[in-house]
Amino acid sequence: MGAVMVRISVTAIAANAPFRADVVSLLSQMGFARVDEARSVIELIRRGGEFLPDIVLSDLSEGLPRAIDTIRQVGHCAPEARIVFLANDLNIETLSSCYAAGASGILLRSISRDALTESLKLVRAGEKVFPSGLASFVSCLTTRTNSVSSLESFDLSDQEIAILRCLINGQPNKVIAASLDITEARVKVRLQSILKKTGARNRTQAAIWASAHTTA
Q1: Res 121: pLDDT
Q2: Which residues of the chain fall short of a pLDDT of 50?
Q3: CATH (domain of 144)
Q4: Average per-residue pLDDT for the chain
Q5: Is 55 helix (H, G, I), strand (E, B) or coil?
Q6: Same domain, yes or no, for 115 and 141?
């Protein structure tokens, strides 16, 4: 029995030819509706074909500057497309920078086929996806009780720092409010202030940003 059709078009964009070939081969076998590749966004445009993939899949191992450049070029040429990177390992600062620039997902290259398919479906639906290893990383942060204090240099109040600590630990607003003895409405107001000061787009990005700006 053949693979079930996945109605998502994906373009692999990377300078690494073996990476592109692997992505095209893998996703084609997995039943994705349309899979193609190009060395860069500019090369794809110069071919004269339509550039309307649902998802652009790229190689994060080519470096953060190239990743950011790819995000910007895709945003300019195909603003509806979502950008996902495959990474060899987990680097919280790189993750933070990519998500802040507009990436919709970063996944480890060791991800299973089923998990990759479901992750790309989530991205197509407008969600953001993260490496599974991030859960272990965040879990380790719970022992670093004093590390978040360094965030004071970013003009964050004591209460905002406390909320960031809660975000890093994955706590919802209700739990944050109870642990800090404030109302949920107050938590929401503080969260908006945190997003404005950090430049994060949502609470998950804020948590990643906070973990990237702490010291052991």
Answers
A1: 93
A2: 1, 141-149, 216
A3: 1.10.10.10
A4: 83
A5: strand
A6: no
